[in-house]
Every structure is written in C-alpha cells, then in structure tokens.
Amino acid sequence: MSVEQRLVHRDHPEPPYPLHPSVVDRINPQYAAFYNKHIMKNQQVHLQPIEASRASGTLIPGAGPLAPVAKVVDYSIPRQETAGPSIRARAFTPQGPRPDKGWPVCVYFHGGGWVLGTVDTENVVASNLCARGKSVVVAVDYRLAPEDPFPAAVDDCWESVLWVIGQGKEILQLDTTKLATGGSSAGGNLAAIMCQRAAALGGPRFSLQLLSVPVTDNTADTTNNNSWRENQHSPALPAPKMLWYRYHYLPNQSDWSHPEASPLLWQGDWSKLPPAVIVVGELDVLRDEGRRFGDKLRQACVDADVHVMKGQPHPFIAMDGVLDAGREAITYFCDALREKMYSATNGVPS
Q1: Nearest alpha carbon to residue 222 among 143, 294, 285
Q2: 343 in helix, strand or coil?
Q3: Which residues are part of the catalytic machinery?
Q4: Average pLDDT, integer, range 61-75
Q5: Which of 249, 273, 230, 139 is nearest to 186 (CA)?
Q6: Residue-wise over 255-281: b if at least 16 C-beta within 10 A, else e?
Q7: Strands 87-93, 71-77: parallel, antiparallel or unpaired by DSSP?
Q8: According to the model, what pLDDT value does residue 348 have?
Q9: In this model, does residue 25 exceed pLDDT 90?
Q10: Residue 162: which region, alpha, beta or left (left: phi > 0; alpha: psi -120 to 50)?
Q11: How many other CB atoms are there within 10 angstroms of residue 26's CB atom?
Q12: How much of the chain, in percent, has pLDDT values that exceed 70?
C-alpha cells in the first residue's frame, strides 16, 4: 500500500460520500444541495486511479456559461530557459476596440492539485476575466505530476510569462506594462510564485495577482494549521486528498518548504510584490494559508484584498453556475483587473 493510500480517510471507501457531520451545520446550503444531488455518489479523486479522473471530463461540476469574447486561439510556446516540450497556451481576446498601447494581459493558471486539469479546466473564469476585465487572458497548460513533478509546473509557467512579454507581446498586441497573473488552488500557488520570481529577478513587473484558494504552504497539515484541523473532512478537498496531491507533485519531502512550492515561506522582499485579491473558502483546509499570505503582503505595505467566502469549501469559484459565492469571487477578480488596468485618465472601455 502506498503512502498516499495509507493517508486516505476510510470511513466511506466507496460512494456515496455523505457530508461529514463536522461540516453539515456549517456548509453553505446552495453547495450542500448541489453536492447531495450531483456529487455525493461520484467516486472521489484520491480513491481512484489518476487516469480515471483525467478521463472523466469535467473536473468540478457546476460551472456557469462562458463570457463572450472576440476570439480564442491556442498557441504552442517555445522554451527559452528550461528543457522540455513546448507549452500549450490559450489566449482569450476581448471584444471591442484595442487600447492604443495594446491590451492589458493576465497570465492565468488552472487548478487541479498539479495532477489534474488542462487548459480547458477554467475557461469560464478566463473568459470572464477577458470580457469583464477587458484584458487578454493567456491560460497555460502546464505539465502535471506525477509524470512531471516539481518544479516542472513552475518552469512551464515561467516560460509562459517570458513568452507573453516577448514573442506574445507582438502576436497578441499587448501592453505588457499592464501585466497581471492569477490562478486557482495549485494555479494560485503558481501565480504567487511567478510574482515572487519576477520580483527577485527584477522583472517583469506584475501589477496584480488574483489568487483563488491558493496553496501557499505545502508544509501545512492537521498538526500545525487550524483550518486543516477544522476542515479536514470538508467535501471537495478533505485533508487526505490535499496530501494525495502533495505527494504526487512533491515526492521529495525536502521540497515541501521550498519557496517555489510554498510561496508563504518566501524570504524575499515582499514589498516588491504586486497587490493581491485573494478569495478563500471558510470550510477549506487552505483557508488560513491564503489569509496568511494576504497578511504578509499587508505587513510589507502591499494592498491585499482578502475575502473569506462564508460556508464554502474549496471549489466555489469553479461553480459559478450554481453558487452565488462563485459568481461573487469571479466578480471580485474581474472588477480588480479592470480597475487596475484602466486608469481614470485613459478611461475604461465599454
């Protein structure tokens, strides 16, 4: 039996998986109703082969419709600094006239625990950021573990940033002085790391980071973190499932505290990081590390707008079709992106 299998909570080894008594009275009613009808009878990701989860199609059910954009084009990104295959990326371009200096741009990374997910996973979030934030969004299809463990995803994401500010600037007609990044869960982890690496290297300069339920501390567990203890049986991302992801992505425990795995532990100059909008779920094991990331930014006099979505477990932003909290979280991101990228003097496009 593998280490991951030994970590799995075995009270309900086969579906259905009813909500745990520790969360029943705390969970959002909208989420509970959808879970009980559509999710409870599904096999849990960490209790089946990875191939089965990857082949199942939708990573998280409950997404809303795509927002209208002018065009969506996939690109193959060549590498500049690291070895490996070319990287697939998807560019969403807004409707309407392009600003004189080019489109603002947001480089976005999907969630899935560095093990699951593709460039298709968060098309809804990406299209909303594009349409409502009036920015080109470049969504990155980084390599996944266990086939390609840490730091492969970090390398791929950095290569995508280099492409955006280089070749992609001309192809997509971008104003790369207006550069943002964002992501959900593992993608939020990667977005935060991109900002830290850029700050350490002296560029490129990010203007904003949009972090949804980010993994910021891969040393956290039920022994050292309150939200892990409180929410260890929360649906969607119970503690054993998060550890299952971690063991696949970070098979060497010595890497758990590496700053490019745990950006909360970064020892660089936090005052050089961009402002952040952070959304976390009250019932998520990752809640406290997301809040602490915001606290560290504020301690360095960097704006951090942190929203704790009451009664929500981990995946709410991907469930905007059925959850008010999902729609609210996307709106926080879209409004912040639009406000940051368009000053009053230049006007905000309609």
Answers
A1: 285
A2: coil
A3: 185, 284, 314
A4: 97
A5: 249
A6: bbebebbbbbbbeeebebbbbbbbbbb
A7: antiparallel
A8: 52
A9: yes
A10: alpha
A11: 16
A12: 94
